[in-house]
Amino acid sequence: xxxxxxxxxxxxxWLRPFYWNQRRKYGAVLDPGLLWGRVPKLFAAVAILYxxxxxxxxxxxxxxxxxxxxxxxxxxxxxxxVDINSATLATRAGSxxxxxxxxxxxxxxxxxxHELAALEYAEAMTYSDQQVSPAxxxxxxxxxxxxxxxxxxGLIAFQNLSSKFNAALDVPAQGxxxxx
Length: 180
Prior knowledge:
By secondary structure, this protein is mostly helical. The chain is built from eight helices and no strands. The chain starts with 15 loop residues before the first helix and ends in a 12-residue tail after the last helix. The mean pLDDT is 96.
């Protein structure tokens, strides 16, 4: 990593419950959390945004949310994000099938209509040489409704923020998902 993490005791006391929860959930404190934590208010803002986007009451299914986060992470070359989000996708989907086929989603019959549209949108938003077409927005509105499109847009934008942050700082994978 280009920026070192600090020992846990050097972070503000009010961040430590977040790190405790990461250790409980993942078996380790996440390196990106420690990097964001170097600027505690920034960490808090990012954590709140992530919590809103990954809530149980989201109109987007957990599998769809994970598909989008992994695909954006792949595009942005974020080793950490691909690792942790692939593990989450495999758990949510009940197998590694979608993880293993995600880079070739256009040529695969594993993905439903909602997932295909969301992946097309994720790529259109993430690749700087593409634009989101009115036709795609129309399909998304039919599938997800206006509020769902806003939420999907926020999720993709957040994952671009997260994966670009981690890729720029060379955050390595932490071994959550072993992809062949």
